[in-house]
Amino acid sequence: MPSPGCAGEAHSGLTPMNVADLYDAAARCGLLTTVKVGAVTVQAAFRAPDDSVLDGLALSRDYQIEYPSERLTLSQGDAVEIAGQSYRVREVRQIRDGSESVATLSRL
């Protein structure tokens, strides 16, 4: 008998994981950086110029943060603070299925 959700599809028993849960796990392991935007504090993946990316095959050229879209809404011109340093948001775009965002930053 087909599963009630999707006729003809086998039920794998796996539940889709919320991307914010992945960020929570990474934060608990110390892999993320605290980002402050006004009174809001979130954990994000932070990249600085000359950081090694793609397993050492390239260098990052911009300051960027990657974070769950549901936890923070940024716009061009917003100010953020990372490790006591101020940055201005240059560009924001959603990635993957829209559940994550990347903001490109300028150091002030």
**Beta strand count:** 8
Q: What amount of the residues lies in strands?
A: 35-45%
What is the CA-based Rg, rounded? 17 Å
- Cα(first) to Cα(last) distance is 61 Å
The helicity comes to: under 10%
Number of separate helices: 1
Shape verdict: globular
Major β-sheet strand ordering? 1-2-5-8-7-6
The largest β sheet comes out as: 6 strands, antiparallel, barrel
Mean pLDDT: 84
Spell the H/E element sequence: HEEEEEEEE
Query: Which regions are unreliable across 5 or more consecutive residues at pLDDT < 50?
Result: 1-8
Class computed from helices, strands and strand pairing: mainly beta
Features of the shown structure:
9% helix, globular
Describe this structure in words.
The chain is mainly beta and 108 residues long. It is 9% helix and 43% strand. The strands form two sheets. A six-stranded antiparallel barrel has the order 1-2-5-8-7-6. Strand 7 and strand 8 form a beta hairpin. The longest helix is centred in the first third of the chain and has 10 residues. It is globular, with a radius of gyration of 17 Å. The termini are far apart. The N terminus is likely disordered.
Task: Give me a quick take on this structure.
The protein is mainly beta and 108 residues long. It has one helix spanning 19-28; strands at residues 33-37, 40-47, 52-53, 58-59, 63-68, 79-82, 85-95, 100-107.
Note the topology:
Elements lengths: L18 H10 L4 E5 L2 E8 L4 E2 L4 E2 L3 E6 L10 E4 L2 E11 L4 E8 L1
Antiparallel strand pairs: 1-2, 1-6, 2-5, 3-4, 5-8, 6-7, 7-8
